[in-house]
Write a structure and sequence with these properties.
- There is one protein chain.
- The chain is of the alpha/beta class and 325 residues long.
- The protein has helices at 3-21, 78-82, 100-105, 114-131, 145-155, 172-186, 191-198, 207-220, 229-249, 254-257, 278-287, 305-308, 310-323, and strands spanning 36-40, 43-44, 47-48, 50-55, 62-66, 90-95, 137-142, 160-166, 265-270, 293-298.
- The strands form two sheets. It has an eight-stranded mixed sheet, with helices on both faces. A two-stranded antiparallel ribbon has the order 2-3.
- Helix 4 packs across helix 5.
- The radius of gyration is 21 Å and the shape is globular.
- 38% of the residues are buried.
C-alpha cells in the first residue's frame, strides 16, 4: 500500500476518534482531498485480489469496473477511458481471479466458476463500501463483466447507486447462434472459414467450437493475427481455465430470469456489436422494468465501446447520472 493511502487512512482514523469523542455517530469525509493512486490486495474468496484505486478526493462516489473476458484486465488501458470520469468519481479497477495482476500474485487454487466469481464480486463491493465508508457504489460491467454485474443488480441492489451494462451478455446462447450464421454468410466464399465454421457445435462441445467463432469474428473485424498459430495456442490455453465458465454463461437467459430490477440501470450498446447481439440487448432493455433506466447507442462502436468511443462513453456516464438529479 502506498504512503499516500496510509496517510489518508490515518487522517480518517483521526477524524473517526475525534467524532467519537464528540459523541457523533458518523464519520464524514469533509476535509480529505488527497490524491490516491494505489493498489490494494484484500483477501477475496480465499486469495489476494488486486484493486486499483485512483482519486483526488475520497468524497467522490465510487465507480467500480467489472472487466470483460473472462480472464482479462482493464487496468493497463484504464487511463484512456477514465481521464474524464476521474474528475467525478473515485475510480476502482479490479483484476478478477486468474486475470492480470491477481493471477500474477496468486493463481486460483481451484477451477473458477460463475458462482465463485459472483461471490468474489459481492465481497469486493462490500470491501469497498466498508474501507471507503460508502453506503453504495456505482457499478459498471463490460461484456462478461455483466454476468457479475447483473448478479449484484438482482441480489444486492441495496449496495448500488446505479448499474451500467456495457455490451451486456443477455442471452449468450442465442447470440452465439446468430453470430455463427452471420459469419457463415460473410465467409461463404472462403473455403477454410466455411469449413471451420461448419464444424462448430452450439452449445459448444469442444474448445475449438468457440475458437473458430472468435477466430473468424476477429478476422472479420480486421484483426489479421487471429489466423496465426500464436493466437490459436493462446486461445486454447485460455480455454483450459475459462471454457467451463463460458459454458455456464451460455445457460444465462436474462429475459426469462430477470424481468425487473430495483436500482437505476443504463445500457450502453455498440451498434456494430455482433459478439453480444445489439438486437437482443435492445429488446431486453425495452422489456426490463426498473425504477429508472436509459439506453445509449454508440454508432461507431462494436464490442469495445470504452476503446472505440472513450470520450462519448465517459460523457454518457456523467450525463446519465446528472440527468436523474
Amino acid at each position: 500500500m502506498k504512503k499516500t493511502f496510509l496517510l489518508v487512512l490515518l487522517s480518517i482514523l483521526f477524524q473517526f476518534y475525534a467524532c467519537k469523542a464528540q459523541g457523533k455517530k458518523e464519520l464524514k469525509f469533509v476535509n480529505i482531498s488527497h490524491k490516491i493512486d494505489t493498489l490494494l490486495t484484500p483477501e477475496i474468496g480465499g486469495i489476494k485480489q488486486v484493486l486499483e484505486i485512483k482519486t483526488d478526493d475520497l468524497n467522490k462516489p465510487v465507480l467500480l469496473f467489472l472487466s470483460g473476458g473472462p480472464g482479462s484486465s482493464m487496468i493497463p488501458a484504464a487511463d484512456k477511458f477514465t481521464n474524464v470520469l476521474k474528475s467525478k468519481f473515485t475510480i476502482v479497477q479490479w483484476d478478477q481471479r486468474d486475470a492480470g495482476k491477481t493471477l500474477a500474485l496468486n493463481p486460483s487454487p481451484n477451477q473458477p466458476s460463475v458462482e465463485q466469481m459472483e461471490n468474489d464480486t459481492y465481497q469486493v463491493v462490500r470491501f469497498l463500501t466498508k474501507e471507503l465508508r460508502k453506503g453504495k457504489i456505482h457499478l459498471l460491467g463490460s461484456s462478461w463483466g455483466n454476468v457479475l454485474g447483473f448478479y449484484m443488480v438482482e441480489n444486492h441492489p441495496e449496495l448500488l447507486h446505479s448499474y451500467f451494462a456495457v455490451n451486456p451478455v443477455i442471452s449468450q446462447l442465442t447470440s452465439e447462434k446468430e453470430l455463427l450464421e452471420i459469419l457463415k454468410i460473410y465467409f461463404k466464399e472462403t473455403p477454410l472459414a466455411s469449413q471451420e465454421l461448419a464444424s462448430v457445435n452450439i452449445p459448444f462441445k469442444k474448445d475449438e467450437d468457440l475458437f473458430y467463432i472468435r477466430k473468424w469474428l476477429f478476422y472479420k473485424e480486421g484483426k489479421k493475427y487471429a489466423t496465426s498459430n500464436e493466437f490459436k495456442n493462446g486461445f486454447l490455453k485460455w480455454s483450459e481455465t475459462w471454457s467451463p465458465v463460458w459454458n455456464e454463461v451460455m445457460n444465462i437467459d436474462l429475459p426469462k430470469s430477470l424481468k425487473k430490477v430495483r436500482c437505476p440501470i443504463y445500457f450502453f450498446v455498440g451498434k456494430n456489436d455482433i459478439q453480444t447481439s445489439t438486437e437482443i440487448a435492445e429488446k431486453y432493455f425495452k422489456d426490463l422494468q426498473s425504477p429508472r433506466k436509459g439506453l445509449v447507442l454508440f454508432e461507431n462502436s462494436g464490442h469495445q465501446i470504452h476503446k472505440d468511443e472513450p470520450e462519448k462513453f465517459q460523457n454518457a456516464i456523467i450525463q446519465a447520472l446528472e440527468t436523474k438529479k
